[in-house]
Amino acid sequence: MDVNISRSPVVDVTFSAPPSKSYTHRALIAASLAAGRSRICRPLDAEDTRLTARALRSLGVPVDWGDNEIVIDGTGGALPGGDPVTLDLGNSGTSLRLLSSIALVSPRPVVLTGNRRMLERPLGPLVEALRALGGEVAYLGRSGYPPIRVEGRFSGGTAAVDASMSSQFISSILMAGPSADGDVELKVPEMPASRSYLDVTVDVMEAFGATVGRDGYTRFRVRRGTRYTGREYTVEGDYSSASYFFAVAAICGGTVRVNCLSPASVQGDRRFLDALEAMGCLVAASGDTVTVTREDELFGITIDMSSAPDTVQTLAVVAATAATPTTITGVGHLQYKESDRVRVTAENLQRMGAGVSVGADRITITPAPLHGVTVNPVDDHRTAMSFAVLGLGVGGMTIRDAECVGKSFPGFWDALRGAGLL
Ligand SMILES: O=C(O)C1=C[C@@H](OP(=O)(O)O)[C@@H](O)[C@H](O)C1
Ligand SMILES: C=C(OP(=O)(O)O)C(=O)O
């Protein structure tokens, strides 16, 4: 499916944020390992979260996905035995990384694999840590990458984790921690990438009754005997997905309100709002609603987005419409995502007329007169959504294979149509 995008006049629209993908993955896992029944309310129903649910069912967890809720009778920390099982996680990095540790909880041999791009997304530091904690983990293809086969016992102990490529390596072990035979202690020698997602992990673990010891982002501990308890849990709104709506105001001018967002959220992509404010937008929050207004031209900034990786592309497209250049740092690990996002973003902005320079851990966007192009997102949902929003400011844009947004935000195109923007 291709979507053609014309230039939009100044906007005055209200959107609802979809549920958080990261929170939904984690609630599914915690509920699966919990003692007792959980009801997950307003889960994100998207390709990636469905992959996690399907994988948990394959591991023997009774996951009942109903109408806007998921009911799970938790296993109480253990997983049932059975034949070896293979989990195909598509290109859901969160699913594959987090479930790699859940696989160690299972008494069955578990193979974790994915699509072609997933097999290019690194896993080495997580495998090394799982081996140190009792896992017998084998690479079935290229060393350091999926597919892997996980056997052994989650005995626990101490492991050092290099999370410079992905915070998910740490989140994975922590989420499974309550099911280890002994204490789990993780030492993190250097600042993890996307560190805010570790706050999301700890938030969900504690919401389901687990206690997590930590020293900032350098050390994490889950004590033997820690357990999850089933509960009713409502998934908060997704600030990463909401960024595209906020960017509509920044790029087209006018006002966008987005509701269903938690004002106390620990999601790192709230930082996108700080960036918009620094560039000249008016940002206001009231209850569950955030309002962004852009009246005058925006000016470029220099900002570290290392803890807000999923809104780097959204910020880059906004930056291309500002009056002066923007430099975004902390972007080196974006090469490991659904695509090499810094390269893809640079190439497409340059095709549109912007000046872009890329360094080891930064991207600088120098605004210039822009023209619409046809963008092939190469199956990356965030490339599709960020350039769609830029198209509303430039016109003459076509997004190829637009259904790829289903990975995280299946309602994206309908939301723009419902607001009269398509
Ligand atoms: O743990 C999570 O839910 C996620 C962590 C981040 O990945 P990295 O930690 O690999 O940067 C983020 O980009 C991804 O969309 C979701
Ligand atoms: C990188 C992302 O997700 P994942 O790591 O789960 O593939 C994303 O949603 O941008």
From TrEMBL:
KW Transferase (keyword) present: yes
Keywords assigned by UniProt, alphabetized: Amino-acid biosynthesis, Aromatic amino acid biosynthesis, Cytoplasm, Transferase
Database matches in InterPro entries: Enolpyruvate_Tfrase_dom, Enolpyruvate_Tfrase_sf, EPSP_synthase, EPSP_synthase_CS, RNA3'P_cycl/enolpyr_Trfase_a/b
Any one GO molecular function term: 3-phosphoshikimate 1-carboxyvinyltransferase activity
EC number(s) from the headed UniProt entry: 2.5.1.19
GO biological process: amino acid biosynthetic process; aromatic amino acid family biosynthetic process; chorismate biosynthetic process
Enolpyruvate transferase domain mapped to chain residues: 16-416
Subcellular location: Cytoplasm
Family: Belongs to the EPSP synthase family.
UniProt subunit comment: Monomer.
Protein name per Swiss-Prot or TrEMBL: 3-phosphoshikimate 1-carboxyvinyltransferase
Source organism of this protein record: Methanoculleus taiwanensis
